[in-house]
Write a structure and sequence with these properties.
Elements (H helix, E strand, L loop, with lengths): L1 E3 L6 E3 L3 H12 L6 E8 L5 E9 L6 H14 L4 E7 L13 H13 L4 E7 L7 E4 L6 E3 L7 H8 L8 H6 L6 H13 L10 H17 L7 H11 L2 H8 L8 H16 L5 H15 L2 H14 L4 H11 L4 H14 L7 E2 L2 E2 L1
Parallel strand pairs: 5-6
Antiparallel strand pairs: 1-2, 3-4, 3-5, 6-7, 7-8, 9-10
Length: 354
């Protein structure tokens, strides 16, 4: 199978089960625990990458529901095959057979109802060097995992500047807001501000200028956000036209602008109080989605829904994620929109716009 790393740039050939397991943390962006990771496959030859899904292993009695949900998602998105990797779920038995066999059987049976074969099913207690792995179908299939840090996927992801987190909890903590007293102070400033914080008749251009200034400060090594900057940027992102221009920075995902903008959205998501924080969180989710990092996108959308339950863009992106719209389709929309208009958000550097 050939799969893409979360950078969206480099494809990695993963035909060996041990290599596939070792690559999982770098494909997801974190080391999963007690999880099922499903690799969807496309095409008549079932060699093209489809969706990559991670779900918590179901509790006893709910295996069929989880299996059916996974099968439906793959069927509705035109997949022709799948591989399942179970991480955790308990130790192997005395005969060396992996745990959660009933769940894997349920997944295979549910997929078969839609004419989707389960090509491989593998297990490891955790993804680490020298951990034992095994196959569900063949008792002679298994061995010891190579060091995940030496995998091709690790090299690609690390080389692109992406961080692989020790756990999903660690990834979640990236979104933790700044001190409550800071947010309360900024919320008070926003409440008392009944007109735009910048002068000039064109609100959109003023908002875009605010975002460009924040990008320039971060690019020059000054990512700190003052109270005044937080208020001005919160106002800017609440303008639909400004937010739309910000969304156009997400593709191509490997560009310096896309990386810098996504970092800024995360910073603002932590620095701006609710409900305005939902704007930055939705932008972070959109950028991660385009990049193929569905775990980060899902976390950002959950935080955005908490900040503003009625936020329209959050609901739209959540529906797309729930329907498993491929990240490439979301990226294509961004690229088409950029081709139709003028890019207004950018990194202003000597020698031009990056």
């Amino acid at each position: 199978m050939t799969t893409s790393t979360p950078t969206g740039r480099t494809k990695v050939n993963l035909t060996d089960p041990a290599d596939l397991l070792a690559a999982i943390p770098y494909l997801l962006g974190f080391h999963p625990e007690d999880s099922a990771v499903v690799f969807g496959l496309r095409g008549e030859d079932r060699k093209r990458q489809g969706l990559l899904m991670r779900v918590d292993l179901p509790p006893p009695g709910l295996e069929q529901d989880q299996a059916r949900d996974l099968a439906v998602r793959l069927a509705l998105t035109g997949h022709t095959g799948a591989t399942v990797a179970v991480v955790g779920g308990g130790p192997a038995n005395k005969a060396g057979r992996p745990p959660r066999r009933r769940f894997v059987r349920r997944v295979e049976a549910s997929l078969a109802e839609y004419g989707i074969p389960l090509l491989h099913s593998v297990w490891a207690a955790r993804i680490a060097a020298e951990e034992r792995w095994a196959c569900y179908r063949e008792r002679t299939c298994g061995g010891l995992l190579p060091d995940p840090r030496d995998s091709v996927a690790a090299a690609v992801v690390t080389g692109a500047g992406q961080i692989t987190h020790a756990s999903r909890d660690e990834l979640e903590r990236l979104f933790d807001p700044v001190a409550p007293e800071t947010l309360a102070r900024r919320a008070g400033l926003l409440t008392r501000l009944d007109e735009p914080p910048w002068k000039g008749p064109d609100l959109v251009q003023g908002g875009i200028a605010e975002v460009n200034a924040a990008l320039a400060r971060a690019d020059s090594g000054d990512p700190a956000i003052t109270d005044d900057q937080a208020v001005r940027l919160a106002w800017a992102l609440c303008l639909v036209e400004v937010r739309g221009a910000c969304m156009l920075t997400a593709a191509p995902a490997d560009s310096p602008l896309a990386r810098a903008a996504e970092d800024l959205w995360l910073t603002l998501a932590r620095e701006i109080p609710a409900p305005e924080a939902a704007e930055a969180l939705a932008l972070k989710a959109h950028a991660a989605y385009v990049r193929g990092d569905l775990a980060t996108a899902g976390i950002a959308l959950a935080r955005a829904a908490e900040a503003d339950p009625g936020h329209g863009l959050t609901k739209l992106l959540a529906r797309a994620l729930d329907a498993m719209v491929p990240p490439s389709d979301v990226a294509d929309v961004v690229l088409r929109q950029r081709a139709e208009g003028t890019q207004e958000i950018g990194l202003r550097r000597s020698g031009g716009t990056a």
